[in-house]
Amino acid sequence: MDSKKVVIGTLGSHSALQILKGAKDEGFPTLIVTIPKHKEFYKTFQFIDEVICIDSFSEFPSIENELIKRCVILIPHGSYVAYLGFEKNKNMKVKYFGNKNVLDWESDRDKQKEWLSTARINMPKQYELNDDISFPVIVKSHGAAGGNGYFLANDMTELKEKISTFEHKKYVIQQYIVGVNLYVHYFYSPLTKRLEIMSMDRRYETNVDSLGKIPHDIQKEIHINPSYVVVGNSELVLREGMLSKAYEMGRDVIEASKKLVDKRGLYGPFCLETIITPDQNFHVMEISCRIVAGTNLYINGSAYSWLNYNEPMSTGRRIAREIKKAIKENELDLLLD
Amino acid sequence: MDSKKVVIGTLGSHSALQILKGAKDEGFPTLIVTIPKHKEFYKTFQFIDEVICIDSFSEFPSIENELIKRCVILIPHGSYVAYLGFEKNKNMKVKYFGNKNVLDWESDRDKQKEWLSTARINMPKQYELNDDISFPVIVKSHGAAGGNGYFLANDMTELKEKISTFEHKKYVIQQYIVGVNLYVHYFYSPLTKRLEIMSMDRRYETNVDSLGKIPHDIQKEIHINPSYVVVGNSELVLREGMLSKAYEMGRDVIEASKKLVDKRGLYGPFCLETIITPDQNFHVMEISCRIVAGTNLYINGSAYSWLNYNEPMSTGRRIAREIKKAIKENELDLLLD
Amino acid sequence: MDSKKVVIGTLGSHSALQILKGAKDEGFPTLIVTIPKHKEFYKTFQFIDEVICIDSFSEFPSIENELIKRCVILIPHGSYVAYLGFEKNKNMKVKYFGNKNVLDWESDRDKQKEWLSTARINMPKQYELNDDISFPVIVKSHGAAGGNGYFLANDMTELKEKISTFEHKKYVIQQYIVGVNLYVHYFYSPLTKRLEIMSMDRRYETNVDSLGKIPHDIQKEIHINPSYVVVGNSELVLREGMLSKAYEMGRDVIEASKKLVDKRGLYGPFCLETIITPDQNFHVMEISCRIVAGTNLYINGSAYSWLNYNEPMSTGRRIAREIKKAIKENELDLLLD
């Protein structure tokens, strides 16, 4: 690839606006691949140089050669992985920002558990159906599905009944921890070996984030099935006395990945999805090994990024800056797969 | 009106600080009309050139001639409409940013319903008292009352009892949709025919946003009547895959207004107040045809405004910029009524 | 103290990052005193010139002479007071930003009540155990404990039982007010006698902010004890029509302190912790007479600070700017104790 001709590209959904705004701010040409229903919307943004439209996201591989010819570096995000699927993604030949070997460890719940355990990260208990389960539990489908298909169960009858009608084949039964959600967004630079906390968020989930507004009297009479579909994110900062712990969790995850995955390990943006209990402990439900949607709050920087940069620094822009630095230092291979 | 002497003015409440800060940033002289209890507070801000104090907001028409003489362009906001009332507002002669014909369509629930239907916008069901009502329902008074007087009813007895003591004469009985709230703030430029999403928010309502913190055991024993009085707003971003739909809803509302209201239709800032259900559908409860209080979060720009502007752009400033552009292009008549 | 050699220092926790980033932005050398578990984390920030590590925060007085020799001005925050304790703090000789006489009035619940009453501030009822108590009540330990040890009680049996096992000796029994929380962050300048609203926040408390997500059916079966441990903060703006009241409360608290405490009274950053009921009234639960953690959201400024400054202005930076101005005007004694 001719590093002077690099174009930053991504799939038109999830965090594409942030990624391409950041790329443009760092001086790159930008390209988006999207579907008809999003096309006109993405065309309204001046920082997107080119909009390529395909019929559905699953057809993405069909334009791969075009992207390779155009020197595109593809920035993956949650929807990218969800739409393409694991196998298609691994087989793509277009330059990919990130270490694809990490995907094996992230997508398999058992391997993810081994990874987090190696990093000495505290996790909720996971159960099999025939375990001695302590209820309530939350059942989650595999992959980045934005909370779609998650459900809560309070006893074995409810659990079995709901699982029997469960449309997603792969799932995990997780201890339901009573505590508040907090998602920590990290960036690890393979060039400088430096870890940064970029920002944090809490998810905005429908309908579960509206349940509390319905008084007891009415909840008693209308049965509401809680659902966990993520439709937005809102800002948060963490109690400062807990920040060093959050930072160490990120560092430990990186170090463990270098042992378990390969020498390069995890790098670039990633996220730990935590629940915090009243003893101020983090319980990590999941790791996401790429940019997460919660970073969309911080197009102009977060409380944390302003500590490290005297200019607006979104996670999207941070990715582009890493690529720019790698091009300058002739180290682009360190970043791409 | 001498366009070289334009002063941006508004009523001292609601979003006046944002409007006048934005006006000053765009180079306009600024004026506020307020009441004694707010006077000293507004005087602490350097970007407000003049504070005019009247005894009560309803006396506003008495200073109208003064404002006309001073070349004031009045920026309306939610409190402006609520304090003046529909008739007084329509009869004012001072230059008004916006199309007053829109007021007829916004203030009448049936016309608003026709408008949103024409725009193919999804709405909660509305009931009459003798309909076959599917409970729970939320009952809302007409006009911009900041959630004051809204109530929830779970059966016909409760509904009739509460309505009988209802202080507001006009109301609407709306299906209570279980889902999360999200308010989308738009700006449509009559000069460029371009629509922008400026920002989003969720409301902070007392006491309903504190109900969930009270455990079931205690809610059972102390009966709490939920209330929906808006006392603040907090930040949000929307899942990016739903943004193009949010954008289209705004566009469709503008287009429908050009058919139904008049050739100019709705322009400037407006807001769709939505509830999002787990199927990721928007249900629009209401349209507000002017600047809403949720934009007060974004004095220095929002995640969305930073995508379109490389400088801080609040909705208040966006209004002033439109006026500035219109003055330059000698098109001020397009904006004012 | 040689005012040309001033170093801004604080304890490494709570809001230290904000304080020292602000100090550096105003041109001061910076120093942090922290404990081993936070040391590496604080070393990652370029705006911290020196990290001093002590074994535990309670050993802070042992390095006092060193700090005095180095011309350190110490900026106190919530953890500073909690870790050192009242007596140690009062006896420290290192230059302290703030009026230490205020501590007597803040730390004693009866004196605080007298102070707020003098300022005509609305407060929740406080009860003694043998009062005729109207339940529910919330019981709070004294001092800045981040919500740790707070509990809710719904009748006398529960209250007595919980108090009997209460680890904190000093506590207050407060009427539980059903309404939304809002914390107002002020700064009062002793140099200009000007009061500013810097920002606002709501706390993020575990587990109480996650209770509402658990449906009625499940809360009925699993008993959850609500807890109020603050682990984060999120952004808010207040309805503009209530801002002048918020401003006046701050002003009245300052004026009352000049009568009750001493001529200087309270100055610098402080916070009123309010609950807002549906009648739009503020109920002030507590006053914090120093920088609070909620300001950590606004490293790059808040909606309110952007109204007053055309540059990013956190509360931490505002403190440093006051010190800078005092040095220039040879008035440093007005600020320090």
Verbal overview:
The structure is a homotrimer of 337-residue chains. The first copy, chain A, has 13 helices and 15 strands. The first copy, chain A, is α/β, with parallel strands linked by helices. Chain A folds into 3 domains: 1-96, Rossmann fold (3-Layer(aba) Sandwich); 98-124 and 178-311, ATP-grasp fold, B domain (D-amino Acid Aminotransferase, Chain A, domain 1, 2-Layer Sandwich); 125-176, Dna Ligase, domain 1. The longest helix of chain A is centred in the C-terminal third of the chain and has 18 residues, at 243-260. Chain A is globular and about 60 Å long. Chains in contact: A-B, A-C, B-C. At the A-B interface, helix 1, helix 2, strand 11, helix 9 and helix 10 of A face strand 10, strand 11, helix 9, strand 13 and helix 10 of B.
Short description:
The structure is a homotrimer of 337-residue chains. The first copy, chain A, is α/β, with parallel strands linked by helices and 337 residues long.
